[in-house]
């Protein structure tokens, strides 16, 4: 139970605290590697969204900055939290990949009957041997593994390798850093060092709070996909500051982390598809109201791009480029005030210039709410 002196944080206070850590109260002039480190990774299920996510957070961001960090290996794209692809710093990937393994092992359960005959003790070394010969696409990996294990489902073989062998994706000169069908290589080969032997769960929780706090154990579990977040936060309790949310649930935070006043202005911002901010908490009211949350994901589980006004997700957005005209369409959840439309239009035009630098015209259009 919470003690009587525990401070209660409103939804707006949680919103501003999280936005401050997510570089969304003001663009900051830091390197892309420092930004990704402060965010403790960026969801990168597709290659394009991190470019937009960094553009909306960094002062003077250029796509070449992210390309350079991928090619100098200070950033990697690899399977991490929730068994999804993330952009991570080389140091964070090395430090926290081992902590992810229990969750990744558990994800194999989705294979069901397709896992018949799958023996990780022989498949994993076989996959490592193939990848030591050089980077390969997963189409190539499945075919080669199927030759060695003809009685095992090829998709099960590929999925097991994705989850149980630490891999990174090999960047290219494609516009968004990776082709549609990317090659993978062994993480220890690419980075020159294997993942840390220790799981570093406590350090991971501290980094989560630095990027997304104040937060509950359930929030941390939602973000990471890992069990045991509550036990780690209990171990860390003496060094953390407790809070309560508006429903009396216990939240944890770093004592010196930024917690701006809830009335701190929050600028109009556009978040890309799959942005980690909208996926990092069990209770997402600090970003999006419960009644709008069903609009966040499509039937095939794509996480839509949202725009922020006064710090909260107020609708979804999409772009179109035809005949040298770049169009951004806003689909608000509810009618927007005039000053919101004006601010979003200015920000949206800048976004279009980043996305489509060759456009002769940019158009920001607001659709009917819903």
Please explain how this structure is put together.
The protein has 370 residues and is of the alpha+beta class. It has a domain of 79 residues: GMP Synthetase, Chain A, domain 3, CATH 3.30.300. Helix content is 37%, strand content 16%. The protein has 13 helices and 13 strands. Strands 9-10-11-12-13 form a five-stranded mixed beta sheet. The chain starts with 10 loop residues before the first helix and ends with a strand.
Spatial order of strands in the largest sheet: 9-10-11-12-13
Poorly predicted runs of 5 or more residues: none
Write the H/E string, N to C. Answer: HHEHHEEHHEHHEEHHHHEEEEEEHE
Structural class: alpha+beta
CATH topology of the domain at 288-366: GMP Synthetase, Chain A, domain 3
The CATH level-2 architecture of the domain at 288-366 is identified as: 2-Layer Sandwich
Main beta-sheet strand count, sense and barrel state: 5 strands, mixed
Radius of gyration: 21 Å
Strand content: 15-25%
If helices are DSSP runs of H or I spanning 4 or more residues, what is the number of helices? Answer: 13
The total beta strand count reads 13
Distance between the termini: 40 Å
Shape: globular
Supply the CATH class of the domain at 288-366. Answer: Alpha Beta
Estimate percent helicity.
Answer: 25-40%
């Amino acid at each position: 139970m919470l003690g009587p002196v525990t401070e209660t944080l409103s939804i707006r206070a949680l919103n501003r605290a999280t936005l401050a850590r997510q570089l969304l109260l003001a663009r900051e002039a830091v390197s892309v590697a420092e930004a990704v480190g402060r965010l403790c990774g960026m969801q990168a299920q597709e290659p394009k969204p991190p470019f937009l996510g960094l553009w909306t957070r960094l002062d003077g961001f250029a796509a070449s900055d992210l390309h350079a960090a991928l090619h100098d290996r200070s950033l990697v794209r690899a399977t991490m939290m929730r068994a999804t692809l993330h952009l991570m710093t080389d140091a964070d990937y090395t430090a926290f990949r081992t902590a992810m393994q229990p969750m990744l092992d558990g994800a194999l359960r989705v294979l069901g009957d397709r896992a018949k005959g799958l023996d990780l003790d022989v498949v994993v070394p076989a996959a490592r041997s193939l990848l030591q010969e050089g980077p390969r696409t997963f189409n190539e990996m499945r075919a080669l593994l199927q030759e060695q294990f003809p009685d095992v489902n090829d998709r099960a073989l590929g999925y097991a390798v994705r989850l149980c062998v630490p891999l990174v994706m090999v960047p290219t000169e494609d516009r968004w850093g990776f082709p549609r069908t990317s090659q993978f290589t062994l993480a220890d080969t690419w980075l020159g060092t294997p993942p840390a032997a220790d799981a570093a769960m406590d350090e991971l929780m501290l980094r989560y709070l630095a990027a997304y706090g104040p937060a509950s154990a359930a929030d941390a579990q939602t973000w990471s996909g890992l069990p045991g977040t509550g036990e780690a936060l209990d171990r860390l309790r003496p060094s953390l500051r407790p809070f309560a949310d508006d429903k009396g649930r216990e939240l944890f935070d770093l004592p010196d982390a930024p917690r701006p006043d809830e009335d701190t202005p929050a600028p109009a911002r556009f978040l890309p598809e799959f942005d980690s901010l909208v996926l990092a908490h069990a209770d997402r009211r600090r970003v999006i109201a419960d009644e709008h949350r069903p609009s966040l994901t499509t039937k095939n589980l794509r996480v839509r791009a949202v725009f922020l006004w006064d710090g909260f997700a107020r609708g979804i957005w999409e772009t179109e480029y035809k005949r040298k005209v770049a169009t951004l369409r806003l689909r608000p959840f509810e009618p927007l005030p005039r000053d919101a439309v004006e601010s979003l239009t200015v920000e949206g035009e800048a976004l279009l210039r980043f996305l489509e630098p060759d456009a002769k015209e940019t158009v920001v259009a607001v659709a009917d709410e819903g």
